[in-house]
Amino acid sequence: FADYMVKDVKEGNCFRADKLLEQHIDKLIESGKVSKEEQERLLTIAQNADAYSAKELGDKLKELGIKAPITGNALTDPFPFNLMFQTQIGPSGHSPGFLRPETAQSIFVNFKRLLDYNRERMPFAAAQIGLAFRNEIAPRAGLLRVREFLQAEIEHFVDPKDKDHVRFSEIKDNKAFLLPREKQVGKAECIHMSFGEAVEKKIIDNQTLAYFLARSQLFLEACGVNPLKLRFRQHLSNEMAHYAADCWDAEIFLRGYKWVEVAGHADRSAYDLKVHAKATKNTLEAQKALEKPIIEKIVEAAPVMKVMGKAFKRDAKVVKEHLSGLEKDDVLKLEESLKSGEAKIVAGGKEFTLLPEHVQIKKYDKKISTESFIPNVIEPSFGVGRIIYSILDNAFTYVGEGKDRRTILKLPAVIAPIKAGIFCVVSSDELQAIAESIRKGLVEEGLMCQFDRSTTTIGRKYAKSDEIGIPYGISIDNDSKSDNKVTIRDRDSWKQIRVPIEDVPDIIRNLCRLKISFAKCLEKYGEFKQ
Amino acid sequence: FADYMVKDVKEGNCFRADKLLEQHIDKLIESGKVSKEEQERLLTIAQNADAYSAKELGDKLKELGIKAPITGNALTDPFPFNLMFQTQIGPSGHSPGFLRPETAQSIFVNFKRLLDYNRERMPFAAAQIGLAFRNEIAPRAGLLRVREFLQAEIEHFVDPKDKDHVRFSEIKDNKAFLLPREKQVGKAECIHMSFGEAVEKKIIDNQTLAYFLARSQLFLEACGVNPLKLRFRQHLSNEMAHYAADCWDAEIFLRGYKWVEVAGHADRSAYDLKVHAKATKNTLEAQKALEKPIIEKIVEAAPVMKVMGKAFKRDAKVVKEHLSGLEKDDVLKLEESLKSGEAKIVAGGKEFTLLPEHVQIKKYDKKISTESFIPNVIEPSFGVGRIIYSILDNAFTYVGEGKDRRTILKLPAVIAPIKAGIFCVVSSDELQAIAESIRKGLVEEGLMCQFDRSTTTIGRKYAKSDEIGIPYGISIDNDSKSDNKVTIRDRDSWKQIRVPIEDVPDIIRNLCRLKISFAKCLEKYGEFKQ
């Protein structure tokens, strides 16, 4: 976790080298003073900026004559800057600690336990959500690049030889806008293709990766993201981590920011487990049953410890370890030597002479019915803040013109925090009591609602409610006292139905769970017009 | 946020002074070598340990002859140690930052917005959950004292003159074990009393504070905490923050740890808002309507800027500000002086001579119908990790003896993460299909379940399921194919009912929402015995 930084040589101000490069190119292109060919070349440089080495970045900055912003001073060569926040743990001052720059690693560290919880079966997945911290050189773009952010991740562990997904058929016909790496040179152009086809044509590496892309698409669209403003962009080869097999970002087109990454989907291969296994001297492996057991011919050199102990004393252990580490061929060679009377070996830096009575050569057939492997991991990783920003950007709409213009926050009912507004059309204790009973009914169903007790007009109440994204409005009027019915108004169509009070919690609940649409409710209850 | 620390003078190891004192006293008392009187005196010291000043702590450590653990070396005098983790923000190295030691402050900082969201009405509350970080000198006691912990808090803002709670009547007859401060001297003895009585007798300061104590009790008991192992302990006067009006901890008796604080309930008065207002030069106030408007006699010195501008040029503004800042009496004095021809004032360090034409003295009646006040805040604050630990401690039980002993995790259904286990009594594709359809039905209701596809016996499956706290087991057997029914088994009573498959999701959902008890289900469906 490092970014390349450059400093203003005189003032000492710090800048992110890749961002300076990108901004400079943006300005050049906007100026309209560069040829079309040069434009294409510059765009390719900008696209690669965050994947360049320090040397490449330095060369490009020099080539384009980029200076420090505002002061116009010269810049230092790019140098890496550690993005992890450092602190001290405990009172001694001698134990440095770092805030985690990503949440993923704690799942890998717990791999053995997780596998155990899943009763040793593969594939399985673990999910988590938590804060990550990066000491960004230049946080900007509002909530899109911040130093403390909420990350949600799934680590789906699979057999590297079988990356098919059991539920792939459910999503294989879903189409998405894909931007494979070879389409990103110059002007980016998406292809609209089903996930099934993309896997078949090897555009997406495997079914599991594609399955998660499809699930992310379903999730983001359910959150109200416009399908035309959502694409999946494959990482360029130099942008992708060296160990990754394939990597696709979900990107959303946001007002004022263009395409913004909101989720990454990486096939990280076995990299993380291998690194952790090595550093902790543990094996982080799973087992699988072989279709047919294999008969392996085992050849072992078994030490006769009683005899060896007398001969080698405390060195016997070293010799024993040496013997157990021998490969099949080495054992056979050892057997040959022993047949000729003795064998010389080197163990723990010393030479030993083995006699036939020290070692028993064992040969037998072993039935092997399981195989060990280091699981690969497919990781969908979500930036929660960016997704919430995208949801708001997609939901924020207007109706009307000029001074009649009104804001409506079209949050889908399934994610709207407040599911219903409750309004009395006229102020009266009797209507308030009905409203209160409806409020209780909704709360009991776990449906958050807002009872607007103010005395403003019903129109103003609807407007306030639309503005904060409440999908349904429940109005109690004087007729409610006699017919035991209330109206439910749909924020997006402004249409109303009139329904029995006792049905309200179920209707709102089913609308919010997408069990029924408001259109279906209109069919069932008829449109209500005052 | 500071603890007192002492160091081993030779080795430099650090210790928390109050904990050393407590541990030493614990050992003394356990040794049985101290008189009953001395025991009482020592217990009082131990109870006060975390409230002592540096000097008091130092004196007690010396008095009891406490040395560094293990080495037995002398200790330094106690000195404060900042518990906040420090780091650097941004690349310059010149911007120190701290990890927050509590989550509360972000609510106070946002007070104005929150009041606005609530349409300026009082009382209102804001809740939040998040990580807090304290660089504990000696984290210990497993998950009970950690350096990074999850805190959940409610800040309930009230009018300082009216701390009654609108829903107090709902909980006023609930009884709890209370440990007021005067009962904590020597041997602590709880009183069992209703919240209504406790407020009436001024044991608990006010209704709102008592309301939250009652809600915490309901919450913790719903989570499975044994009511006999839950008490509310009032802070000692020297333990309570100087600004607090009253403070009660919820404490749970845990195996191996005795009474452990899991939540605090403090009336923090107006302290936080006052401090933030002062530091940011903002007013953090709310308004309330007066029952009867007040008529206030206003006397103002209004500058006649046209004339004053000519006379004082650019100083006119300073004079104007001086005039608008005058109190009523000062204006009346000014009026007197002006009547005698002129008045001398000092503004912005300069003297000015005001003439009658410069100032107009205005006298009028003003109707005042609202009053400003700085809200007080009642804060229930929960340590999420400690609550989860307490839930597990309370849920962890055994049945049977010796090698038949089995673990059962009696998590209440309402909080159990997995609500139901699904089991096929015999292995068959047909039964698996029924099981799968039940799984889908439960998932659609948002009920997490575990379909145990293994081929072990049903008894072993139940045992596994009991061990991880799943409250209900759904078993599909060969009869299910013909009668379309399955059995539901209750983890805690091991009793079973047999119900139509299509009713399963509703039954499980209602059991988990406490809409129906298993006893009621037994009445309705009859007990099923094989």
From TrEMBL, chains A, B:
MF (Gene Ontology): ATP binding; glycine-tRNA ligase activity
Lineage: Eukaryota, Sar, Rhizaria, Cercozoa, Chlorarachniophyceae
Pfam families assigned to the protein according to its UniProt record, in alphabetical order: HGTP_anticodon, tRNA-synt_2b
InterPro entries: aa-tRNA-synt_IIb, aa-tRNA-synth_II, aa-tRNA-synth_II/BPL/LPL, Anticodon-bd, Anticodon-bd_dom_sf, Gly-tRNA_synthase/POLG2, tRNA-synt_gly
UniProt-recorded name of the protein: glycine--tRNA ligase
Keywords, sorted A to Z: Aminoacyl-tRNA synthetase, ATP-binding, Cytoplasm, Ligase, Nucleotide-binding, Protein biosynthesis
Domain of life per record: Eukaryota
KW rRNA-binding (keyword) present: no
Keyword Glycosyltransferase: no
Enzyme class at the top of the EC tree: ligase
Domain Aminoacyl-transfer RNA synthetases class-II family profile: 55-412
